[in-house]
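Protocol step 4 of 6: structure prediction from sequence.
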Amino acid sequence: MASNKKYWKSVEELNTKSSIVDTLKQNEFVEEIPTDEFLSNKESLETSSTTRRDFLKYVGFTTAAASLAACEGPVVKSIPYVIKPDDIIPGVAEYYATTMADGFDFANVLVKVREGRPIKIEPNKEANGSTNARVQASVLSLYDSLRLKESRFNENGAAISSENADKQILAKLNEVKAANLPIAVLTGTCASPSTKKLINNFSETFGNVNHVVYDAVSESAALDAFEAMYGSRALPDYNFEKADVIVSIGADFLGDWQGGGFEAGYAKGRVPTNGKMSRHIQIESNMTLSGANADKRFMVKPSEQNLALIKLYNAVVKGIATREASPLNDVILKAAAQIKKAGSKAVVVTGIQDKNAQLLALAINKAINSTVIDVVNTKNVRKGDDAAVAQLISDMNAGKIGAIIINNSNPVYTLPNSTEFVEGLKKVKLSVAFSMQDNETANAVQFALATPHYLESWGDVVIKKGQYSLMQPTIKPLFKTRQFQDALLAWTGNTSTYYDFLKEYWSVEILKGQSWNQALHDGVFVADATEEQEIVINEVDIDAAGSELAKIKGSEFELSLYTKTGLGDGQMANNPWLQELPDPITRTSWDNYLTMSKADAEALGVVNHNVANGALNGSFVEMSLNGISEVLPVLIQPGQAKGSIGLALGYGRKQGLKAEMQTGKNGYQFYKDFNKYQSNVTLKLAAGEHKFACVQLHNTLMGRGDIIKETTIEDYNNLDSKEWNKVPVVSLDHNEVEANSVDLWQEFDRTVGHHFNLSIDLNACTGCGACVIACHAENNVPVVGKEEIRKSRDMHWLRIDRYYSHEEDFAGDNEKKEAGTGVIGYKDTMAALEDPSENPSVAFQPVMCQHCNHAPCETVCPVAATSHGRQGQNQMAYNRCVGTRYCANNCPYKVRRFNWFNYPNNSEFDYNMNDDLGKMVLNPDVTVRSRGVMEKCSMCIQMTQATILKAKKEGRPVNTNEFETACSNACSTGAMVFGDVNKKEDAVASLAKDKRAYHLLEHIGTKPNVVYHVKVRNTKEA
């Protein structure tokens, strides 16, 4: 019997006059589906004859359209070549050898180019090139959307052509010449012989030209000292591989000290090959990379470093040792004894920016005939002259300078007396700045002339005496730019291009019959060794130098200025990769801050604490120094000497930067007399609370010795490896067996084909972070910004964990943990272990996806998005991933990253992936991941497959050690070695079986393909 009941779906249907009811009878949705947002506009849809579009438009395009907005991947439109260039094969990378020389960083590099776009920087290993994080990230600065894109006349703010600029500038230069006023050429360190030749030609044309070299971060004191003793204004080179004993007083030689680049040799001496390794003693104020890697670290205030150096000189050279009972004296006496024992295989370096201090260090090395220091083949990476810069500013303000031409320098930002310099600019008849960036100096002069990036430029560099490097363009200039050298040629009436001038100069002066094309291909040319130069050593009154140094007095609080491995001197502050790179020591990004000891922080009432979402907040203090006051956040830093505070340079820039990159405060304003150590600092607690972007909030291992295994060189040599590299055991049938011998799953035969392993030597890893940036560049890792990092949403595929010890060393932590008894006692012990020591031991550990052969992530994925490859890689199928995050929860290494947002084309994340220019750096071989998927280290599967395909195409097996990943390629210390363990000749095959080898969290049975090596310390005193 039929029912007369009426069923309705909503109260709207009770209204008989409702238009919505009628609409719903015909359509599933009341409102029109916004198909134009997903496919195209309405006009093109109606005229389209595309079958697929017609199908989606007329058939079943209902709920699929609504969900498409959340699920769509980024669409990139490609335009095919109408006529393919002969020298480009689509899909195949080309490599060009060139040189980076920006005045702060110098490196021989290879540039990976895809379809005409430079996308990655790699070290030119055939030229002994090495790269740091900034060199790796420099490719992104090429695509900076806020670059100075064309020359500008600042008096009216209008763009100006090169021809018009030359006409006006030449007229002014001739006026200055007629008035017999000096012309100043102010540049950063210029290690280019051809550019020096052009400046000399310019000087001959206009007369009375003074070339002043200015380094934002000065090494002028070291240059002055070396010139006084050895007669040439240069820096000695150091090969730390030859050192048995290294004593550093305030020199962060694993950072940016004297231009850096020493880590490769240092690491070779630190790996206990044949049971030997160097001993490293560090005396410093801030916790630095060098201090973190040292065997013995002693904390002193900056003014006390002078005393330490004087005592060391007296003990080593004069044989005079005071008997005062002080910790510093004890350290110095022991260090002196070890130096004497090592003899010529010892070296002393110092970072004190005082000519007298540098003379003492040179004198010690001369007295012991150190073979580590090379005073013949000197380095040209720092050439600044502080006295000349100070005189220039004085002359400008006195009206004695007619014109100033600035290149490769930003003095308006970096000078401590920047205001005086700006006032001086107003008193010269002509001011010109050649700049790639629309920075502070480019906005303060009359003419801002746009220059190309080094990847768009020709040039030459002599980084080290006798080794000539070439710079070549890897892409046509993106904007209306012109090189400084081309302008000098035009101003001197030379009609040739800089390329022609450079080629001719090299043919005559350097190559002398050798092939230009070969030199260009190699990137370097080593001049034939002539007869050995006789070293002339001038007599220097070292006692007088020591007496002068002893006069320097300290104060209650002293400031130590330093550069971070990320931002350096600040010229790449608009580079989001570097802004987001966590500092190796503090693990904090997007900021600079005052580092302070825990004791000083407690005395001032300064606190650091975690808020509800786990992020780190901290107090502000007002710092006053030399009449300048600044409110700065404070980060409590283990290993900071009492009475000292640290502040990073390179932050606080405003002009030519995106809003997100305008972070921190300018430390250069406190850099009085170009001295990184400043006394008479006053501190006062200020109101408010600062929000840090810190990626690691747990600072100690808490006695978990199976994560970072350590031993001493004595135990390494004298005990069985099972004593210091214990294999974890589990219970099987009531018997203890080695954990890696028990399997939950059936084992597969992995001996056929390739099987990849990555070896990481904790002795060689210095924590520099170059591998992190290389991973970003190779794998299109997005930048998420400060706020997301505070929510623990960083996207780094590779992180470098930094651990402090609670006791004097990690062995003491393990002993304390084992000594904890009872529930309460153990709880109190573990709580205490969370607090780092006042002067802790430090260990760095790179952690990425471990590519487990028994991967716990694979077993829990409901859609099989993550699976295991035949070659040992744990693989991700992004299109399958639905974002359950089960894999991240089940990963014991916490290396998986979830895309909370669409980072490309998103104004909330205004970094390189949000503009067309920045996206030119993306690697086309790697998918740009969309929102809602899980991503992680792929062990650079695109690189391994490219190597296999290349060998296949050439009809040969893969060569020994030919396989590489981005991180292993970038690692200048050799800490990371990648290869095929089934190929016995590959270095990784023997490293995986080394007695120091172990796996992270081995006891849980995941069987990773990443192998770590036990960290060995040389702690025994002489």
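Step 5 (inspection) to follow. The two ends are 106 Å apart (CA to CA).
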